[in-house]
């Protein structure tokens, strides 16, 4: 390993660990809801199984702006053009607020109709609808938090978003304890109480993140005057990257919603077991997303520096770290699935089925890690169209079609559905690697 590669690995690790902790805490916020609600009843747990996919699908819009923010701000910083970096950051905030207002209006209006698309159980629909309405009522603050965090990450500050997320999660744990179970004189509101707690904490998080980005301590400090830098050029450039980036999780998550419909057809019990297995599997998505974001930041900065060799070394070092971590997690899923599932529920039958799913899912972990890194590389290079095609192919063909065939038609149930999920990740990893080799040659020619 040469000096540049060692420096890149050192920088990767320095940037990635706060993002891993932050992503862990973000996932923990939802999983704490799941773990606490899991002590209530199967109806509440099944409702959480619907809320998760719906929430992530709706958030696809701002995910795209976040990816565009990292790519454009990181590239501007790599080129040492701070005015351009601030312009892109202010543009991202403007788009996020606009998207947040529209999203809030739609979800609040159709909160009870959305879960009814996936399951016929009126009790589950009622619980899921109440949760969606209260959490999305203040969703502008969630969007502001996400944009602010990605502005700071693109500039190399990954610790501040982590600290703010720690504060938010501590408040969420306290709020859940008080409002789900009715402690210290508060009413016992069950799943709805978890929604109130989450909405309150995400609002606080959004306010704190925005205040920091607009302070002098920020590496990309913004002010009211910064919004005067927003113009058609920056909006167009950011949307050029963000729209395809937003489309990718939309196609993937819409496929995942159909996948959820297939799982729901197996019954409330299967939904509960699948929710537990997904909650455990989030342990791998947490570092995977962090690796992807860090790789995108490094690749964006190296492209700004016009260093194709730096881009290649950034991807290689990112892959080495990612595969090490995901293989370790896969080993955990294979050897101690019962212990991991027991964190979220006491129901022995649910634990047994969720454990089988986790043992199957262990095989997909290295492929999942590979996809996250290569997707980050494409995002950092400003190519957000390739992930749309590869993500859509992986989800809609192996996952959705094979899930129905194995899980429903051939009667393998939830185990068959998780086999299809593993095939999905293997397919996507193969396609990503093939496209990356082609993209790598073009990058050397153009820089």
Query: Which overall shape is indicated by the principal axes computed on the Cα atoms?
Result: globular
Mean pLDDT score: 85
Q: Point out poorly predicted stretches.
A: none
Structural class of the secondary structure composition?
Answer: mainly alpha
Number of DSSP strands? Answer: 0
* Assembly type: single chain
> Which bin fits the share of residues in helices?
over 70%
Termini separation (Å)?
23 Å
Please report which band the strand proportion falls in: under 5%, 5-15%, 15-25%, 25-35%, 35-45% or over 45%.
under 5%
Helix and strand run: HHHHHHHHHHHHHHHHH
Number of domains: 1
Largest sheet: none
- Radius of gyration over alpha carbons? 21 Å
Question: Helix tally?
Answer: 17
Characterization of the model:
With 447 residues, the chain is mainly α. The protein has one domain (3-446). 83% of the residues lie in helices and 0% in strands. It is built from 17 helices and no strands. It has helices at residues 3-37, 42-58, 60-78, 82-109, 113-116, 122-136, 139-154, 159-181, 191-213, 232-264, 268-304, 308-335, 337-341, 348-361, 365-380, 386-409, 413-446. Helix 2 (42-58) crosses helix 6 (122-136) and helix 11 runs antiparallel to helix 12. The protein is globular and about 55 Å long. The two termini are 23 Å apart. The mean pLDDT is 85.
């Amino acid at each position: 390993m040469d000096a540049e590669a060692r420096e890149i690995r050192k920088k990767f690790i320095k940037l990635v660990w706060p993002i891993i902790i932050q992503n862990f805490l973000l996932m923990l916020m939802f999983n704490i809801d799941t773990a606490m609600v899991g002590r209530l009843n199967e109806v509440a747990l099944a409702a959480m199984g619907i809320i998760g996919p719906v929430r992530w699908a709706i958030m696809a819009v701002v995910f795209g702006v976040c990816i565009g923010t990292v790519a454009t701000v990181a590239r501007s910083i790599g080129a040492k053009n701070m005015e351009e970096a601030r312009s892109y950051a202010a543009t991202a905030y403007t788009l996020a607020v606009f998207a947040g207002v529209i999203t809030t209006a739609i979800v609040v209006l159709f909160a009870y109709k959305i879960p009814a698309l996936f399951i016929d159980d009126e009790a589950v629909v009622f619980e899921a609808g109440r949760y969606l309405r209260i959490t999305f009522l203040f969703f502008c603050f969630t969007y502001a938090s996400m944009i602010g965090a990605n502005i700071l990450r693109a500039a190399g500050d990954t610790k501040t978003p982590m600290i703010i997320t720690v504060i938010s999660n501590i408040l969420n744990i306290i709020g859940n304890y008080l409002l789900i179970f009715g402690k210290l004189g508060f009413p016992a509101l069950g799943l709805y109480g978890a929604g109130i707690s989450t909405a309150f904490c995400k609002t606080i998080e959004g306010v704190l993140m925005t205040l920091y980005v607009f302070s002098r301590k920020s590496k990309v400090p913004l002010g009211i005057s910064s919004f005067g830098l927003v113009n058609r050029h920056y909006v167009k450039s950011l949307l050029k990257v963000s729209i395809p980036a937003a489309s990718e999780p939309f196609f993937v998550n819409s496929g995942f919603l159909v996948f959820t419909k297939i799982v729901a057809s197996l019954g409330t019990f299967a939904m509960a077991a699948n929710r537990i297995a997904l909650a455990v599997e989030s342990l791998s998505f947490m570092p995977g997303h962090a690796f992807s974001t860090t790789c995108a930041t490094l690749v964006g900065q190296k492209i700004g520096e016009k260093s194709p060799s730096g881009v290649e070394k950034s991807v290689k070092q990112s892959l080495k770290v990612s595969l090490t971590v995901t293989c370790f997690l896969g080993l955990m899923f294979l050897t101690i699935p019962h212990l991991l599932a027991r964190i979220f529920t006491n129901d022995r039958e649910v634990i047994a089925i969720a454990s089988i799913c986790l043992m199957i899912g262990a095989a997909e972990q290295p492929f999942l890690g590979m996809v996250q890194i290569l997707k980050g590389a494409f995002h950092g290079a400003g190519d957000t169209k390739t992930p749309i095609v590869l993500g859509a192919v992986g989800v809609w063909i192996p996952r959705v079609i094979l899930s129905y065939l194995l899980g429903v038609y051939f009667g393998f149930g939830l185990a068959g559905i998780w086999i299809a999920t593993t095939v999905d990740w293997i397919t996507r990893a193969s396609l990503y690697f093939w496209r990356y080799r082609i993209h790598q040659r073009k990058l050397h020619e153009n820089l």
